[in-house]
Amino acid sequence: MLEELAKQDEIIIEELVEAILQEVGSGTHESKLRTILRREFELSNEQVNELLQPQLELYTSAINSTINSLEFNPNTSEVFDYLVNSGWSEDAADNIIDVAALQLEEMLKTSEGIKEFSNSYRNMAIIGVVVVAFCYGVYMLTGAMGEKHVVFFWVGFFGIAFILYGIIGWLKYLFKKPGI
Q: Angle at Cα 18 formed by Cα 4 and Cα 81, nearest 5°?
């Protein structure tokens, strides 16, 4: 009997955590959720953290990918559709987009944020150079043996695309001033 009650409580708690984080998503209501779980279900701080951590990580990941999407393409309707198709409710998707847009705006007001974007694009260009060099080396090595592999050509093509995308993004933020 006690085991059944414990399982029911566990299911209720998990559903409560998921529902609240799915609908509100942001850390503004996280403290209220923590209080409810501690008081009503008499959970310790460790148990509350264990319950909330996976959902908070999922939410943080959604915000970070939304920031990257909005930086690349400010069309929020496409980002909204992607979030909803990924399993987020419409309210949560709106909330994620709002939080990501605010964080992106704040990042672009600081020189550190601009430098972070510039460095990420520079790193993408470097990865592209490494991929192209690797593909060229393998292609030449297999060519010397009388074999040609078309797969390496296409991987090299994507490496070149990474280089171009990285250089364009790097230049975009290289001379950008904070707050503009």
A: 145
Model-level pTM? 0.59
Helices of type H across the chain: 2-23, 30-40, 45-72, 76-85, 90-107, 111-144, 150-174
Structure tokens, 171 = 């230049």
- Tokens standing for residue 39: 């008081």
**Tokens 């460095």 — which residue?**
119
Rounded CA-CA distance 20/176 in Å is 39
Are the beta carbons of 120 and 144 closer than 8 angstroms? Answer: no
Q: What is the pLDDT of residues 78-95, one digit of tens each?
A: 888 988 898 888 888 888
Contacts of 1 (CB under 8 A, 6+ apart): none
Type of residue numbered 56: L
